[in-house]
Write a structure and sequence with these properties.
With 324 residues, the chain is of the alpha/beta class. The chain has two domains: 145 residues, Nucleotidyltransferase, domain 5 (2-Layer Sandwich); 155 residues, ATPase, nucleotide binding domain (Nucleotidyltransferase, domain 5, 2-Layer Sandwich). Helices cover 37% and strands 22% of the residues. Strands 2-1-5-4-3-6-9 form a seven-stranded mixed beta sheet. A hairpin with a 3-residue loop joins β3 and β4. α1 runs parallel beside α2. About 2% of the residues have low confidence.
Amino acid sequence: MTQDEGSGAVQHRETSAPVIAGIDIGGTKISAVLTDESGAVLAKGVVPAPAAEGGPAMADAAADLVLRLCGALDAPLAGAGVGAAGVIDQERGVVVAASATFTDWSGFPLADELEARLGAPVWVENDVNAFLLGELRWGAARGESDVLGIMLGTGVGGAIALDGAVHHGVHGAAGEIGHTPGFSDLVCTCGQTGHLETLASGTSITRRYRAATGSDASAPEIADRARAGETAALAVFTDAARATALAASVASSLLDLGMVVIGGGVREAWDLLEPGILDTLRTDAPVSGFPLRIVPAEISADAVARGAAALASARLADPVPATV
């Protein structure tokens, strides 16, 4: 397998067969994987994301990374899938809306720009939708049909699969559970109040811990302190777990979902989240009475990129899938 982190490649397996790229475009980094038709990862790499330089610079960085990986394998590119932050028009491959982290990203025709640079077809999804696609194909949701995916990272994102396919909704924004209200009296990063993100994101964990202790500890450091039994650290993770479980229970009650998969950086503290999630489900389970399984994602670092590769693989096999 080839790995490129901007400092050269290590260990690679050459192939003459066409490969499929999966690209994860975030605010701080762009990562990519190359897979074969079975989904096996042949190469991967990561580069800084020039988010402040605008859409063309982001497309340049992503395409350069993919082409460099293809060159190391001496393999042609069959197609690429992209998981990108923001609201995405999946049919046109256009970023409809994005946070202020990105300059000139809203309205950017990402699929067309990447196709011009890569010389291969490109399909674009929201990054959390791509994460859920990966879990459906290779991860914790294998064999499941109706699933909610939640990513607890810098923010909180969500995605919904119905009948085994990602559900986009009328505006392409289905599943955005991070910005649902009623969880606290704290101001969210979006400017509104009480959203799930104010309790369950990595950002909120560090902010609430700082407010309680005055410490500027990072989320992983706070997790270590919680494992050591520190009351303030345990409290922020307990609050995050309860809020996440309540949101999952509401979504499951609305859509009769059987599983919720939790990913993102905060998922690395699953040992701290799981007790609070299970306690909450004992008192606030879906009214149907059917058990709701809330489980950690099985694909970690490359979840979005691998899900984007799964999207491209499916579209190459069926360019016009049924609308969900």
